[in-house]
Amino acid sequence: MILAAGRGERLRPLTDSTPKPMLRVHGAPLIEHHVRALARAGIRRLTVNLCWLGARIREQLGDGARYGVTIHYSDEAPHALGTAGGIVRALPNLEPGPFAVVNADVFTDYPFERLAIGPDADAHLVMVPNPVHHPQGDFGLELDRAVAVATERLTFAGIAVYRTALFAGLADGPRPLRPLLVEAMSANRCTAERYRGIWADVGTAERLRAVNAGDAIQ
User: Fold this and answer.
1) CB count, 10 Å around CB of 119?
2) How much is the pLDDT for 113?
3) How many structural domains is the chain composed of?
4) pLDDT tens for residues 137-164?
5) Full domain range(s) for residue 171
6) Does pLDDT of 218 surpass 60?
7) How far is the C-alpha of 72 from the C-alpha of 142, rounded, in Å?
8) Is residue 30 part of a domain?
9) Is residue 108 part of a domain?
């Protein structure tokens, strides 16, 4: 699943007429980089959630045939449902799982073919060194486990694998992801890995310019 429903407030006015995942990075829409990378990794069935200017994304990607994948869409208009809420709505396209999820507003060379989740986990997170704009990080990493409380924290890269069990019993509607991850961590059901390659959160116009100038965080 590619998460592409966000409004992109911090990127205004660029996102007033262009959805954030359609902003161009190195000559192509940001979301296309993900579609092509996922296809190279052998992932052939994709779901993209839509809200703000979602028709533009649907028009760009179509049914996915030209990328060698099949793309399904999960509509959230008129209001985006948040990360967990968007996943819950899209579950009919994602079951039985496990399934990979990537934020459309990150730029990375992460090799998606190496994504995996063990039988003793409901979530597996990719984490990266903290960027300048997020120095406090999100979670700790102890051996192969993500932990909510730690002295050294890393930043969640917006790349993960989940089991549908993480979202079992949740009703359709707005919902953040973090509480579900913290619950999984408290049950020792959330694994993680540290990635040191190219990664950037394209969340502001300044960061978009930096990525296009070749200054993605490493």
Assistant:
1) 5
2) 96
3) 1
4) 999 999 999 999 998 999 999 999 999 9
5) 2-212
6) no
7) 36
8) yes
9) yes
Supply the mean pLDDT for the chain. 91
pTM of the model: 0.93
Token pair recorded at residue 193: 């890995």
User: Rounded distance, CA 35 to CA 25, Å?
Assistant: 14
Q: Is 156 helix (H, G, I), strand (E, B) or coil?
A: strand
Q: Which residue shows structure tokens 């730690």?
A: 150
Q: Strand runs (DSSP E) across the chain, as ranges?
A: 2-3, 24-25, 28-29, 45-50, 70-75, 99-103, 106-108, 123-128, 140-142, 145-147, 155-162, 190-194, 199-201
- The residue whose two tokens read 């911090």 is 10
Residue 217 lies in a domain: no
Helix axes 54-61, 30-40, angle to 10 degrees: 40
- Residue 17, SS3? helix
> Which of 101 and 13 is assigned the larger pLDDT?
101
Give the whole-angstrom CA distance, residue 184 versus residue 182. Answer: 5
Q: Kindly report the CATH number assigned to the domain that includes residue 120.
A: 3.90.550.10
The answer to whether residue 218 is domain-embedded is no
Q: How far apart are CA 199 and CA 132, in angstroms?
A: 13
What size, in residues, is the chain?
218
| Phi, psi (rounded to 5 degrees) for 56 | -65, -40
Task: Kindly tell me if the per-residue pLDDT of 8 is higher than 50.
Answer: yes
pLDDT in tens, 165-182: 999 999 999 999 999 999
Tokens of 201: 């959160």
Answer whether 134's CB lies under 8 Å from 153's CB: no
Amino acid at 11: L
Give residue 144's identity as a one-letter amino acid code. D
